[in-house]
Specification:
Order of helices and strands: HEHEHEEEEEHEHHEEEEEEEEE
CATH class: Alpha Beta
Number of strands: 17
CATH topology: Deoxyribonuclease I, Chain A
Number of helices: 6
Shape: globular
Helix content: 10-25%
Structural class: alpha+beta
């Protein structure tokens, strides 16, 4: 009996694995109830749009339901108005059994909405990357972690919406690339968030004149160099200084986090450096990319977004979640 027990322990140590789940979620306009002067009109606290304590509490509760179902070790968030809103979300999560001890928001610039992160794992460093001084560009949040002597960097992004041309998204891509070069392409780097870009944006935007003002060049595909590796992660070939978009690791029919006029889109992405494709140290777990697609996140063939009335002034109805689905991936920390 003792021999069997010792053998079992040995197998667990050799073949066991430690995993880290990392997610990204655009929560669709989480505004607090403090008037800063930078709010969207329909989120002015206690105004005609009914953005009040009751609806704020419902929004926090609904988002918490989603984040609890994800239960990621680290979750990057987009469209958070303020540190106060982030803390209120964190508090609601804790009240419902999920505690994120560590948190950070990119709030050095007064953009209307910002990116943030919640983590069960401590940061070893954080940095806010200024894309441009204009309020049209949101800052990028860099967070560094270390697990069992494996360092890795997470960059949380929210690039310019499709209301602007591709040249604006390229500005964000170049600011991100500048920092990547400082760190080194050989490091464990995870780029994630709402890029407002398809994983094959260079194909899909080509004939859209209001977007294609760059002669076919895109931020996500050309600047970040995600254009060469387009197979499953198990089959992908090494490409120096390139990044791999994890969308290629799941079936095409499941590649979406957003639905616009009935068409499925991949505005949200998780993109990794080459070192995370190697089976040593820390690496991406094959076939682990997925979206959270619980029934409650859909209303018919649409995503069950936070609901406001169609007529102006738009009024909050206290229903729904977000217009995006969360995106989730798992990484292995080798023994």
């Amino acid at each position: 009996m003792k021999i069997v027990f010792i053998l079992f322990v040995f197998i667990t140590l050799v073949f066991g694995e430690k995993t880290v789940t990392i997610a990204s979620y655009n929560v669709e306009n989480l505004f607090d109830l403090h008037r800063s002067g930078y709010e969207y009109y329909e989120y002015i606290p206690n105004g005609v749009s009914n953005w009040n304590a009751k609806n704020y509490k419902i929004k926090l509760k609904n988002l918490s339901r989603v984040i609890i179902d994800i239960d990621a070790d680290i979750i990057a968030l987009q469209e958070i108005e303020s540190l106060r809103a982030l803390k209120d979300l964190r508090k609601t999560l804790k009240q419902n059994g999920l505690y994120y001890k560590y948190y950070k928001i990119a709030d050095r610039k007064n953009t209307t909405i910002k990116v943030a992160i919640l983590s069960k794992i401590p940061f070893t460093a954080t940095r806010e990357i200024s894309v441009q001084s204009s309020l049209k560009y949101r800052n990028i949040l860099e967070t560094k972690f270390s697990i069992d002597n494996n360092d890795f960097y997470i960059f949380t992004n929210h690039w310019k919406s499709k209301g602007g041309p591709e040249s604006m998204r390229i500005v964000s891509a170049k600011a991100l690339l500048k920092r990547i070069k400082q760190i080194g392409y050989d490091k464990n780097i995870i780029l994630l968030g709402d890029f407002n870009s398809d994983y094959e944006e260079y194909i899909k935007f080509k004939r859209k004149r209001r977007h294609n003002d760059t002669n076919g060049k895109t931020g996500i595909n050309h600047v970040l160099k995600t254009i060469k590796q387009t197979t499953r992660s198990s089959d992908v070939k090494y490409e120096k200084n390139n990044f791999y978009n994890l969308w290629y690791d799941i079936d095409k029919k499941n590649r979406y986090t957003y639905i616009y006029r009935g068409k499925k889109e991949t505005l949200d992405n998780i993109i990794i450096s080459q070192s995370l494709l190697n089976k040593s140290g820390m690496y991406y777990k094959e076939n682990s990319l997925n979206t959270l697609n619980k029934d409650y996140l859909f209303r018919g063939n649409k995503i069950n977004r936070w609901y406001t009335s169609g007529r102006k002034p738009r009024k909050h109805k206290g229903k729904g979640y977000s217009d995006h689905l969360p995106l989730i991936a798992t990484f292995v920390i080798a023994n």
